[in-house]
Amino acid sequence: MFLKELQNLDVVEYPLLGFVFRTDGSIYFYDTVSAEIIGISPFMKKLIEALLKKTKALRLKKLSETANLYSEEKVLKGLKIINLKRKNENILEQFSGDFEIGLKDQFHPRKASFNHLVIEVTQNCNLRCKYCIYGENYTHERKYSSAVIDKNAAFKAIKLFLDSPGHPEPKITFFGGEPLLTKELIEDCVKYAKEINPKTVFVIVTNGYLLKPTYFDFIRNHQIRIAVSFDGPKKFHDSYRVLPGGEGTFDEIKSNIEKLYEIDGEYVKKNFSFYITLTDIKNLKEISKFLKQNHLFNNLPVAISKITDAGLKENINEYKNQVPKSKNLKSLLNGYVNNYNEEGFKRVTAEHAYFFPLARLITNRKPLK
Prior knowledge:
The chain has 369 residues and is an alpha/beta fold. The protein has helices at residues 2-7, 42-51, 56-69, 72-89, 103-106, 151-163, 183-196, 216-221, 234-240, 250-271, 284-293, 317-322, 326-339, and strands spanning 18-22, 27-31, 36-40, 116-120, 171-175, 201-206, 225-229, 272-278, 302-306. The chain folds into two domains: 2-106, no CATH class; 116-354, Aldolase class I (TIM Barrel), CATH 3.20.20. It contains 13 helices and nine strands. Strand 4, helix 6 and strand 5 (171-175) form a beta-alpha-beta unit. Helix 6 (151-163) runs parallel beside helix 7 (183-196). The longest helix is centred in the C-terminal third of the chain and has 22 residues, at 250-271. The chain is elongated.
């Protein structure tokens, strides 16, 4: 009866992707699909290890063995929890492809090759951008909070990353929230990582509001790359990228970048990039003109992304009507790139059409029991 019930569950139909690992007292699952590290209990470890098996027969066998250790009722309840997490939080997704193409080896814990670690240092943010996936217009996402990653947890992630086989120049990105709300933590992480591997490359993804000259020395001393979210002309930027009180942020961010440019323009040109969230395809020509005419931007890499529609509340028609579907965005951008190649738009290439928010490798998600 129990085995028959297991066979009919969607959660066992295909395997998970990732691997389980331990630290000094905790157990984690690295979820390859969502790129998150999730704390798990010893019982959940047994379930996940069963769901990682290559074939359905092996998954069922391991789940039956787990039921013998705990109980059939507990196993079924645990599987339902995993299924709910998958549906509501977009984690623990299944893989329905062919393992024989090499994915089994690629995600084996002893063979995994990590080239890029993204640390979500905080869930807090000093802005309340209207299209932010963590804002009130989206479902199935965590909301803003004052949570900051524990420094020891960050250090453990860095050591795990830098001790693994990978690229000769590994990259660590600090993400949020707004990472610059945790400057001291970032400084500690950078110094710790450099002790392990001096060739480590660092990136901070920031809204630019706190990007002040007082922090520029540290950025330059450690050759940190900066990715600034900045939506082009003031009227576009200030329509969406606002403070909690609704005030626009264009002037402050532009002033910050101008001051850094005055201190060391060559460093800014070499290490800064900008990310524009497109709210209306009709704005592309005006954005192009702005980029060309402003010396701060006309030699810097610029990427464009659409508003994320996954999880967008159905009643937010303002966004859904303005932004083209993903399948059309690439061809539309190609057209604009070709048409305005001589107007300073050549830096925005079609490949940027599918830039999405960086995955959160280390999170403050509650452990699965």
